[in-house]
Amino acid sequence: MPDKLAEIIKRASELVESVPENLREVAFGKAFDVLMQAESGGGSQTGSKKKTTRRKTSSARAHAATESTDVDQEMRSLDDLNRTEYPEINHSSSGIKNSLRLIRAARDDLGIDGLTATEIARVLTEKFRIRITKQAVSSMLNDAGQYVDRKKEGNRVVFRIMAPGEEYIDGPDDVAASPGSRKKRKTKKASKKKASHPDSNGTSRASKTSKKKAGNRRAGAAAALAQIFDEGFFSSPRTIASIIKHLQVRLGRTFKSNEMSPPLLRYLRSQKLNREKNEDGQYEYFKP
User: Fold this and answer.
1) CA torsion angle for 153, 159, 164, 166 (degrees, to 10)?
2) pLDDT tens digits for range 202-237
3) Residue-wise pLDDT tens digits, 3-56
4) Which of 52, 148, 222, 243 could be 263's S-S partner, Cβ–Cβ 3.0 to 4.6 Å?
5) In whole angstroms, what is the distance from residue 90 CA to residue 177 CA?
């Protein structure tokens, strides 16, 4: 401090050399005060700025660490998803349907309300063996219109399925992908069929037949499930495999797992049925 004071006095003296002699004493006092204030205030301000910067950096690091921990916990939970319960998530379905079905599965089974494109791409690729990139998932969901809700949480964008999205993924697989999305390129074979068998409205007969069959299959699965439900079949816990086998024996109807899953999920959401995992990790459905 003595060295700083001597330096300030020297600088103040140099500043007032050109001032008339009768004013030097007053000028020296003012110059000295200004230099002292600058010396003490500047150092304090610099220190304060450094402290503020350190606090902001620490806060940002803490927030990033918390967010990273949350993501890790979600991914560990998603690893517990039983893929055998979701045969409708498969290579035959479109990327948008698989993504929406995974979002719903995470919500219904694990209580995770919303997934990021990174999480969806990783689970589809690693657990369901459906190779897809996070960029592709993000592009599809951002173009999915009213099917999803998008919310930014920190550095992440979380996608949540909406009611129209649930109706869409429970419908036939040949429904258009989503509002505003790019139309799928038609194969030459499909184009030839459509051109060779147009009706009065210009619609392919083969296309109409395919849609009608898909719709009939889903309607048939729902009707068959309703029949055995009314007969008391679910008074005991039943797996999807046992349901399909019973329908084959009882009604002579053969259904696939992905055809039975949508009506079963509707029964769950309406609380007509409950389900729990058995010792083999499979869901068993029963009346509450």
Assistant:
1) -130
2) 555 555 555 555 555 556 888 888 999 999 999 999
3) 777 888 888 788 777 777 777 787 788 878 888 887 776 555 555 555 555 665
4) 222
5) 16
> By mean pLDDT, which of 29-38, 39-48, 60-69, 80-89 is the weakest?
60-69
Q: How far apart are alpha carbons 183 and 70 in whole angstroms? A: 37
Tell me the C-alpha distance between 283 and 280, whole Å: 9
Structure-token match 């699965």, residue found = 221
pTM as predicted: 0.45
Burial class (CB in 10 A: 0-12, 13-18, 19+), 43: exposed
Report the percent of the chain where pLDDT is more than 90.
31
The full DSSP string for the chain is: -HHHHHHHHHHHHHHTTTS-GGGHHHHHHHHHHHHHHHHHHHHHHHHHHHHHHHHHHHHHHHHHHHHHHHHHHHHHHHTT--GGG-TTSSTTS-HHHHHHHHHHHHHHHH----B-HHHHHHHHHHTS-----HHHHHHHHHT-GGGEEEEEETTEEEEEE-HHHHHHHHS-TTS-S-TTPPPPPPPHHHHHHHHHSB-TTS-BHHHHHHHHHHHHHHHHHHHHHHHHHHTTGGGS-B-HHHHHHHHHHHT-----HHHHHHHHHHHHHTTS-EEEE-TTS-EEEE--
